[in-house]
Amino acid sequence: MGIYSPLMETIPKIISAPTAASATSNTARPVPPRPRQYDARLARWLVTPLVNTPVTPNHLTTVRLIVGLACTWAFAQGSYAMANLGAILLVLSNFIDHTDGELARISGKTSRIGHFYDLASDAFVTVLLFGGIGMGVAAAAPGKFPLPVPLSASTLGWIAGVAVALIFFLRMRIEERVGKSGTKQASVGGFETEDVLYLMPLVTLFDGTRGFLIAAAIGAPLFALLVMADYVRVMRRPLPSKADAKVAADAGQTTQPEAVAPMAPAAFAADAEIERAMDAIDFDGVTREFKSQDAFIYMEKFLPQSVTEQLIAAARAVTPNVNRNYLPGHKQGGSVSRHTLDELAPFVAELYRSPALMRFLERLAGEKLLPSPQDDPHAYALYYYTRPGDHIGWHYDTSYYKGRRYTLLLGVVDQSSCKLEYRLHTRNPGVAQVDGAVAYPPGALVFFDGDKLHHRITPLGDNEERISLTFEYVTDPRMGTWQRFISNMKDAIAYFGFRQVFRQIFGRTKR
Question: Which parts of the sequence belong to the Fe2OG dioxygenase domain (predicted)?
């Protein structure tokens, strides 16, 4: 279902792929259970003839997106006639939103990209819908405030849209934690709560768009607070242990895969080499330098050669998965998140959890360090500068966690003129700022408190290449709901792309 209404429960569509053969197979495919909702039943009946055709669920998602955008445009015009047209298009868009999922269920035409495209379309259309309704009300009565507060109708629309987007995000996080049962909507007589959207033509017919906007602007934020409370409650609930999962399995019960505690990391094969390399370091001198430079240290030779060679091999292996990004005036380059590295370059994850490495960093920091949570795509990541001009501007590695976040940079490939330029003591009143620049070749180390070091990477030159590895460790892995939302959106837009960032959610389901 879509997620248009802010006054009702909003869930992502998790549509299981059939376990049978492809759509063109002559082998009979098990038919999924008949939908309980009437609109879903009608949608399945309509798309059944498309099973053995070139039409895919993504085609239907595109149609739904186009109709949804047309609905938004119609509402934004502000006239009575266009509002009624928008309501009709809303009903049509909401119904088409069922067809892609039903086609995916009965045909086996599923994909991770398709599932993400479906959810992204839902969120995009929903936010724009409320914005369009607000713009239309403002156009119909310019200069008037729908509520006795200095907020325009357009502002109220965007408030409702953003609140629904937050609801959508939180519901996905809850489902990731406890499964689909945690986001199940109420259903009565073959209708779900969000099916009230089919009554939207009655709202516009009786010229009730303004009242609907006011209700949405008040109800959506309030419901977002309820969902936020539900999210906090779910996140505080302890996950079943592996022993509990075994007991459940013995009893014939099923347990959500994501609810089982992760396996302990495999023993790090090269840990002994790192331990020996640590013995050759003047630790007292390094610690004094780290403290005098306000939690910053650079070591040109750190990793053993054999470890560096394995990192280079890992970086080459995941090169096809690099996500390129460009933020004008700030950064340009490529990156690969920890989720992809877990699948294609597990050596990186082993190094990240190396007991010897973590002991060394904890002694430097003077406090207990913990790995970043499993859903943090930034926990360990590779960064690729492969095109002229690739760079990142001045920034801090701002921590959204409740504790501090330390950044470890390791050189992997450096055939470039790039430099890490930094400014020390920028946040120490009364202490003179110190500027510096280093190049970290393969095996070099840079370690610092992300909230203290102001730094950048200078632009890559022609025919140059630079690849570096970043590890992030935290002192407190807790993060607020809003901070997690901001962090994920920042990582999706500026670094890894939505697919890599949200693959923990979308990767477990297909459409």
Answer: 376-475
Reduced to 3 states, what is the DSSP secondary structure of residue 501?
A: helix
128 neighbors 135 (Cβ within 8 angstroms) = no
Contact 369, 362 (CB under 8 A): yes
Give residue 185's pLDDT.
54
Radius of gyration of the chain (CA): 26
- Average pLDDT on 46-55 reads 86
Long-range residue pairs from 221-224, CB within 8 A, at least 24 positions apart, any chain: 221/159, 221/160, 221/163, 223/6, 223/7, 223/8, 223/163, 223/167, 224/6, 224/163, 224/164, 224/166, 224/167, 224/170
Name the percent of the chain lying above pLDDT 90. 25
Quick one: tokens of 30? 């098990």
Residue type, 224: A
Distance separating alpha carbons of residues 169 and 161, to the nearest angstrom: 12
- Residue 192 confidence (pLDDT) above 60: no
CB atoms under 10 Å from CB of 292, counted, come to 12
Dist CA 223 CA 466 (whole Å): 47
In whole angstroms, what is the distance from residue 485 CA to residue 507 CA? 18
Report how far apart, in Å, the C-alpha atoms of 402 and of each of 233, 372, 412, 478 are. 18, 12, 30, 6
Helix spans in 32-152 (H): 38-47, 57-76, 80-107, 112-140
The vertex-249 CA angle with 245 and 254, nearest 5°, equals 85
> Cβ(405)–Cβ(397) under 8 Å?
yes
Whether 443 contacts 311, CB under 8 Å:
no
Other C-beta atoms lying within 10 Å of the C-beta of residue 37: 17
In Å, how far are 70, 134, 150, 449 from 156, measured between CA atoms? 21, 6, 10, 40
Nearest to 158 by CA among 180, 174, 173, 136: 136
Q: Left, alpha or beta for 331 (phi > 0: left; psi -120 to 50: alpha)?
A: beta
What is the average per-residue pLDDT within 55-84? 90
pTM above 0.85, yes or no: no
H helix or E strand, kind and range, residue 384:
strand 380-385
